[in-house]
Amino acid sequence: MKDCKQRIIAPSILAADWSRVAEESNRAKETGGDWLHLDVMDGHFVDNISFGPTYVEAVRKSTDQYLDVHLMITRPDHFFPRFAKAGADNITVHVESDHDVAETLAGIREAGCHCGLALSPDTDFDDMRPFLDQIDLLLVMTVRPGYGGQAFMESETMPKVQEALAERERLGLSYHIEVDGGIDTKTVKIAAANGANVMVAGTSLFAAPDMAAAISEMRE
Fold this sequence. Notes:
This protein is an alpha/beta fold. Helix content is 36%, strand content 20%. It contains eight helices and eight strands.
């Protein structure tokens, strides 16, 4: 895993052309993307359904890119082994899901993956504090989870990014601070100024006229 102070651009496959998964996965890498982000939605934790471990496995077979798998599902403790087996490099679960958070994080690490913990815009940062020393990545959702194309929620989420940064420095930890939702070449500057270093972007990258230029601008 890269240094937590390094800017990382993670194109989200949710916005790609799924009928061309191999080409799109490789386009994300060849145009400068560092990680590939995969949003898994179960229709219960969020009101949308995306894909499961078989799709993650298909992506894994098509690229050697670092796979950042985000489980927006009710029972991540039950399902994470399938995503680890499918080839995930990092598995992020939600603090709001129905599971023993510490036990799930430990299980993900034992499965050979990096582990992340996410919180939604309406969740208090205090819910994350007991687990900060157990994670490699802290994901602040900058939209309400479930659908792409939403507007960036600056006032609701940037204070959480600031807290994540302050606590990382206070405790001497090294977790990445990731943002996901409404990230484009404008909002990436806001997220970075508040302390985020991993930028997940979907439509603003895959639908860009020049994906390489868009990634380069986000990185700078």
